[in-house]
Amino acid sequence: MTTAVLVVLLVVLVVALFLLWRRNRELVEMYSPIIDVRAEVRRAREEAQRLRASTKAEMDRLREETMAALAEQKRRKETLSQEYSAARTLYDRLRSEIALVEENLEDISVGLYKPHYDFDSSEDYREALEAIRDRQKALIKSGQAGVCGKTWQIQGDARAGERMTRQYLKLILRAFNGECDAAIAKVSWNNISKMEERIRKTYDAINDLGRVMEMRITPEYLDVKLAALRLEHETEQKKREEQEEQRRIKEQMREEERSLREAEKARQEAEEEEERYEKALEKARAEMAKAQGESLAQLQLKIQHLDAALHKAHEMKEKATSMAQLTRSGHVYVISNVGSFGENIFKIGMTRRLEPLDRIRELGDASVPFDFDVHALVYCEDAPALECEFQTRFRDLAVNLVNPRKEFFTVSIDQIEAVAKEKGVNLQLTKLAEARDYRETLARRAEAAAGQVPQVGNEAEFPASV
């Protein structure tokens, strides 16, 4: 009984296990996709966490490398900036020193030089320059040009040390004098400031070399050399002014002589015409005494014409005689040349010519591209005084502030008219400049430009930059 029960129970157990296995198999087959997704999700989550950790480590490494590279770039930039700054400072210093000995006008800074002396003639400047040279010799002879701040001995021999000191001082003075003489020889109107700087730099360089031996050039000797440089420069300037003044005086004398010759020639011609008209008039009057009828009327008309011509010849003779006797009489003119100099630029001058337009035609010769236009021409007994009045009033408006004898002024025609009215001068002004050749030239250029046909597809017609 027991065995049978056990067998039955065993069979039931086997059947139950079989059913359970079968049910489990069905469940596995039914839910296997879900089980696989969960496993895949878990695996993907683990892979993502691993990848995130790896990426974070890589990013940290790259960030550290980037920061290190930026720090290196910043350090290199600072180093390059310092090197560039030092190189630029050296370049500027060398350029400045080179400019001291360059002769190229474009590389020289032209400044306004203020004269240190005010002598009347170049001879006075020469005398002052000789006095400066005597002062140099006196400083050298008295030992005040170069000094030594220490008593040297050579192997205990004070006399040998003194001899060495004298020779060294003589050497640095010779070097300084040579540089100063070179600067003085090259000084001109456009480089006086550079030459002063060149002497000062030479002074500093030589004193720097002598610092070890405690030997130096004195400031008194430097001042004497600078004074010699300035005197030499101002001497040349004064000589140039004197030459310009002599040239102007000679030109004025030639102009006066030419004016006198013209006046004398005009006077002689007027006298000859006067005599000729007087004889013709006497002859006509003698004929009129015998004439009758229509011939008498013709002779009367002829006598009237001869009287007018005689009067005109007499006036010309008187004018020519007056201009020959009065050296200050002449014509003051106001002229312009728009094509050559532009608008509102006038030349105000004077001439003693009997025919003043001859002088104006001379001014418009081949040295300027266009002829001058006359705006005013007035005769007066004291032409230099009237000319001086205009030029003094417009002195600050002169085109050339260095040489006022050029007589060109940047003014308006109304300003000229106002000064003339103020001085009581009857000045008949022509305000519009004809400038015939200039305006016709502009018209031809405009016509030529209008007749040009632009090429299609020409890429160079409108450049990328101007």
Characteristic terms for this protein:
alpha+beta, 7% strand, elongated
How many domain modules?
4
**Overall mean pLDDT:** 81
Q: Give the number of helices.
A: 11
Give the strand content: 5-15%
Oligomeric state of the chains in view? single chain
Give, in order, the helices and strands.
HHEHHEHHEHEHEHEHH
The strand order across the widest sheet is: 5-3-4-6
What is the helix content? Answer: 55-70%
* Rough outline: elongated
Outline the biggest β-sheet.
Answer: 4 strands, antiparallel
Number of strands: 6
In whole angstroms, the N-to-C terminal distance is 125 Å
Structural class from helices and strands? Answer: alpha+beta
Radius of gyration: 52 Å
Low-confidence stretches: 103-110, 453-466
Quickly describe the structure.
68% of the residues lie in helices and 7% in strands.
Describe this structure in words.
With 466 residues, this protein is α+β, with helices and mostly antiparallel strands. The protein contains eleven helices and six strands. The strands form two sheets. A four-stranded antiparallel beta sheet has the order 5-3-4-6. It is elongated and about 210 Å long.
Give the SSE map.
Blueprint: H1 2-99, H2 122-141, E1 146-148, H3 158-186, H4 192-209, E2 215-217, H5 219-290, H6 294-325, E3 330-336, H7 338-341, E4 345-351, H8 356-363, E5 373-380, H9 383-393, E6 408-410, H10 413-422, H11 436-450
Antiparallel strand pairs: 1-2, 3-4, 3-5, 4-6
Helix pairs in contact: 2-5, 3-4, 3-5, 4-5, 5-6
